[in-house]
Amino acid sequence: MKLKLIGTLLALTYFSSPAFATEYIYRDLMGNTLPSAKCESLADAKASAVKPYKFKSYSKKFCQTQGYGWHVDEIKDNGEVACNECSDEKGLQKCYVKDITVTCKRIKPGTVGMLPGKG
Predict the structure, then answer these.
(1) What is the pTM of this model?
(2) Could you say which of 36, 71, 88, 113 is the most buried, measured as most Cβ atoms within 10 Å of its Cβ?
(3) What is the CA radius of gyration of the chain?
(4) Quick one: average pLDDT of 53-82?
């Protein structure tokens, strides 16, 4: 019984050691989504432009354009919907979202053993 208690206490002290804080680099980016591929009525075009899936995928793409290791931290501003009228069909539109603001983050080099032989 004492051996089990001692083993448990040793395991708890081993895993409760203070974790090293990871430092991040942050960047705010602003970008636009692409217009939809097909022409739709104004209400349908606006609805397809503001789908949550588009915000997630485009914000991920914005951060990935910064290079390796950049990830989405948060979407600060969802932007506003803008529409263009289709040239070949009257009354139909293609909509997109402009000025989406995203905060991207990346682990600061050298803070978590990324450089060999350091720390």
Answers:
(1) 0.70
(2) 36
(3) 24
(4) 92
The whole-number pLDDT of residue 110 equals 76
Q: Which tokens go with 18?
A: 């203070």
Query: How do the domains of the chain map onto residue ranges?
Result: 23-107
Average pLDDT in the 79-87 region? 91
CA distances from residue 63 to 74, 81, 114 in whole angstroms, order as listed:
11, 21, 21
